[in-house]
C-alpha cells in the first residue's frame, strides 16, 4: 500500500469550534488550542483559558528553536518566576503568556519590522512638499509603532484583571526587565545559544546561579508551568 493510499481515507478528528455566532473567516480571529479564540479587532469578544495559553507557550520554543536543546517559552517563564522576588513572581510567570496568542517573535525580527515601517514612512515623507505634512506622517508612524505593541499589552492587562492582581508599577517593570535579561544570559550560558544580534543588556548583569533542566516533552513543560500558575489562580475558571 502506498502512502497516498494509506492516508486517502484520513479525516482530521472533529474538534468543536465553539466560536461566536458572528464569527467570520474574513475577520481577524485566532482559534486557540483549547477551543477558545482571540478577536484581534475586538479583544473584549475573546474567550481564553489559563490552560489554553499555558499549553501554547509550552509548545513554543524560545529563539525560534535555535538552541542546543529544547527550551520553551513556558520554561523561560518558570525560570523567571523562580528567580524573581516575591512581589513580582506572578508578573514574572505571566510576562510572556500573551505569546500564547501572538507567538514569540525574536528581537531581530521586531527590530526589522520597525525599521521597515520607518523606512516606508520616511520615503513617503520625502515625497511631500509641505513640512507640516511630513510632521503628520511622522506622528502617524509613531502611532503605528505603538499600535504594534498594544495587542500583547491588552492580553497582559486581561491576565492581571482575571487573576485579580494589581498591575505592576513602573519600578516592578524595571525589576522584571532585569530578571528577564538575567534569564536570557542564563539560557545563553547553558543552552549552547549565542544570539548574533545586539542584546542591549547591562554588562554588569550576571546569569542566575542555577542549573536549568530542559524538558524533552512539551507536556512536562506545560505541567511545570501549571504547577506554578496554580499558586495564584483557579485553573478551572474559564472566564
The whole-angstrom Rg is: 21 Å
Basic shape: globular
Instruction: Write down the secondary-structure element order.
Output: HEEHHHHHHHH
**CATH architectural category of the domain at 29-105 and 165-231:** Orthogonal Bundle
Largest pleated sheet? 2 strands, antiparallel
Strand percent estimate: under 5%
Main structural class: mainly alpha
- By CATH, the superfamily of the domain at 29-105 and 165-231 comes out as Hypothetical protein af1432
Q: Give the class-level CATH name of the domain at 29-105 and 165-231.
A: Mainly Alpha
Give the N-terminus to C-terminus distance in angstroms: 48 Å
Organism: Cohaesibacter celericrescens
Protein name: Phosphohydrolase
Explain the overall architecture.
By secondary structure, the chain is mainly alpha-helical. It has a domain at 29-105 and 165-231: Hypothetical protein af1432 (Orthogonal Bundle). Helix content is 50%, strand content 3%. The chain has helices spanning 3-6, 50-59, 73-83, 89-94, 99-102, 107-126, 131-162, 170-190, 218-229; strands at residues 29-31, 37-39. A two-stranded antiparallel ribbon has the order 1-2. Helix 2 (50-59) packs across helix 9 (218-229). The chain is globular. The chain starts with a helix and ends in a 10-residue tail after the last helix. It comes from Cohaesibacter celericrescens. This is Phosphohydrolase.
What attributes does this structure have?
Hypothetical protein af1432, 50% helix, single chain, mainly alpha, 239 residues
Summarize the structure.
The chain is mainly α and 239 residues long. The chain has helices spanning 3-6, 50-59, 73-83, 89-94, 99-102, 107-126, 131-162, 170-190, 218-229, and strands at residues 29-31, 37-39. The longest helix has 32 residues, at 131-162.
